[in-house]
User: What shape does this take?
Amino acid sequence: MNTNMSQKDIPQSVRIRTDDGNEYRFDAIEAASELYGVNRSDAVARACDDVARLADALVDILERDDLTRRQQREIADQVDRATSFEVDVENSAEVGRE
Assistant: This one.
């Protein structure tokens, strides 16, 4: 939770638009709901919590000493193709958004 916000600043509800070219979002939320086995709202919250931890874990994996540069790039390419992450491997690994 954003620690800079006071309890009174948190809205009662948050709407996710699924119109005007954003219809894919509903399918993504449904898939997360099935994955986690929870309702849509809880699935969105869990996915948001998990994405930062996954990005940190990915950086840790890509910076391991026992991986070759080729293995690091193969992992980064695989993640690049499978997610909205942008993964760069140079002297260190960095995960960002597209």
User: Anything to note?
Assistant: The helical segments are 24-36, 40-62, 69-82. Residues 18-97 form one domain. The chain has one domain: 18-97.
